[in-house]
Amino acid sequence: MKQFRFLALVLALTTVSISACTAPVSGFDRSPRKEGLEGFVETNDVRLQYLDWGGSGPALILIHGLGDNPHKYDDLAPAFTDRFRVIAYARRGAGASDKKGPYDIGTLTEDLRGLMDALGIAKADIVGQSSGGDEITEMAIAHPDRVRRIVYLDGVYDYSDPEFRVVEKALPSWVFGRPASVMASLDAFRWYEKATWFSDLDDMQRVEAFLRGNVVTQSDGSLMDITPKEVEDARQAAFHTNKRRDYLRIRSPALALVSEHALDVNSPDTQRRNDAIAWEQNYWRPFQTHSVEHLRRDLKNAEIVKIPGRHVSFWLTHRKQVVSEMNRFFAGHLSP
């Protein structure tokens, strides 16, 4: 399943051995974590898992990317409970939500609207990471009365853009796949995730519930992905056939936080580091620039801020800056 995270872009680009990645990285914000209270709603002919951190004030809804689950926000969500009721949910096909199609943007947006209805939320601020940017875009267009403000967490990329196919095809074939031994135990899975996805994260406990939420532990201690491969294939295929984003129709204030890197450009493996740097320079940077300029041109009230770090983890490794930028944005666009 992990090869589909970030729509097959942010992949296993390091050959650091699992045992070499046990030491924590220092210098990051060690902030309190609190898992949200789990619940389920039935809507749009699907059962959706959600996490509710409580809090006082209007609703703030967090949407994860492809191949993820809502526990990826366990570290970020508590930063906003002093002024919002903070909720994240598992999109259909992810986490403990039903593995049931279709997965087109129209259906996913109606899932979001139905979740809000089921939880009694009339209007919300909505945050979308990576492909979660599709739902916040379409929700702001289709149901503008339900949206106050939107925040893209490196979610400005339109994966239905033909240019994305060029970027995707340029990835080396060896970046796809995962050693079978990784699924032998939870410990092996943790260290693989550390080496592959979270090499720059100071404390893996910050994503422990997230990691557990992506797998099922079997009776012999081995693991299997919680989302079957055929479901991941169907979800990814849907992104290529969605309609193009129409930012011109959005009236909500918008903040776009854009990560500095997509890949691990600091890999200790020389060949893979060079591959990552070359791919970013030749393919990713032009596509990122194109995507940001599309937003800047058509969504006039959007604020765009570059944040250090990587696509899959920048709001963890640079939590203070992300929280500060979001709070500044919310304070500058007060809404009833």
Structural commentary:
There is one protein chain. The protein is α/β, with parallel strands linked by helices and 336 residues long. The chain has one domain: Alpha/Beta hydrolase fold, catalytic domain (Rossmann fold), CATH 3.40.50. The chain has nine helices and ten strands. The protein has helices at 105-118, 133-142, 162-169, 186-196, 208-212, 229-241, 270-298, 314-317, 319-332, and strands at residues 37-43, 46-54, 59-63, 85-89, 124-129, 147-153, 215-217, 223-225, 254-261, 302-310. The strands form two sheets. Strands 1-2-4-3-5-6-9-10 form an eight-stranded mixed β-sheet, sandwiched between helices. Helix 7 (270-298) links the parallel strand 9 and strand 10. Helix 1 (105-118) crosses helix 2 and helix 3 runs antiparallel to helix 7. It is globular and about 50 Å long. 47% of the residues are buried.
What's a concise summary of this model?
Helix content is 32%, strand content 18%.
Describe the SSE topology.
Layout: E1 37-43, E2 46-54, E3 59-63, E4 85-89, H1 105-118, E5 124-129, H2 133-142, E6 147-153, H3 162-169, H4 186-196, H5 208-212, E7 215-217, E8 223-225, H6 229-241, E9 254-261, H7 270-298, E10 302-310, H8 314-317, H9 319-332
Parallel strand pairs: 3-4, 3-5, 5-6, 6-9, 9-10
Antiparallel strand pairs: 1-2, 2-4, 7-8
Helix pairs in contact: 1-2, 3-7
* Helix-strand topology string: EEEEHEHEHHHEEHEHEHH
Poorly predicted ranges: 1-30
Number of helices: 9
Biggest sheet details: 8 strands, mixed
The CATH homologous superfamily corresponds to Alpha/Beta hydrolase fold, catalytic domain
| CATH hierarchy class name | Alpha Beta
For the termini, the CA-CA separation is 41 Å
Helix content: 25-40%
Class from secondary-structure proportions: alpha/beta
How do the strands line up in the largest sheet? Answer: 1-2-4-3-5-6-9-10
- Write down the domain tally: 1
Rg over CA atoms, rounded to whole Å, is 19 Å
What CATH architecture would you give?
3-Layer(aba) Sandwich
Task: Determine the mean pLDDT.
Answer: 88
CATH topology: Rossmann fold
Percent of sequence in beta strands: 15-25%
Q: How many strand elements? A: 10
What general outline do the C-alpha atoms trace?
Answer: globular
